[in-house]
Design brief:
Elements (H helix, E strand, L loop, with lengths): L2 E5 L2 E3 L5 E8 L8 E6 L6 E6 L5 E3 L7 E6 L4 E6 L8 E7 L18 E2 L3 E5 L1
Parallel strand pairs: 2-11
Antiparallel strand pairs: 1-3, 3-8, 4-5, 4-9, 5-6, 7-8, 9-10, 9-11
């Protein structure tokens, strides 16, 4: 199974942009379905985007048109480009491997029955 590390989070102004990275090791990255998720206190884990190994991509309604996911197989890395950020985008963002594409993991992110998760990275929009 794979191990994942997210990076790129931090504070950004409303309307700004940030790119998150998720680097994988220990598995066949280019044959793994990947997802980006986010969670704030008191809310359910939200599916932001998913990308199947065959290239199929899904975006949640709240981020469609503003966020873009991509994969660089040579670097074992997936990216989440976040543009035109809003205050409601503030959350801890997680990537996960070996997931069910287009499906929410449930109430909490990092549910181990859903896939292999990274540690998360905080994004604060103000």
């Amino acid at each position: 199974h794979v191990q994942l590390v997210e990076s790129g989070g931090g504070s950004v102004q409303t309307g700004g942009s940030v790119r998150l990275s998720c680097t994988a090791s220990g598995g066949r990255f280019d044959e793994t379905d990947m997802g980006w998720y986010r969670q704030t206190p008191g809310n359910e884990c939200e599916l932001v985007s998913s990308m199947r190994s065959d290239g199929d991509i899904f975006y949640g309604d709240s981020v469609k048109g503003r966020f873009t996911v991509s994969r660089d197989s040579a670097k074992n890395t997936v990216y989440l480009q976040m543009n035109n950020l809003k205050a409601e985008d503030t959350a801890v963002y997680y990537c996960a491997a070996d997931v069910l594409p287009r499906v929410s993991p449930g109430r909490l992110c990092r549910d181990k029955s859903f896939g292999h998760w990274g540690q998360g990275t905080q994004v604060t929009v103000s």
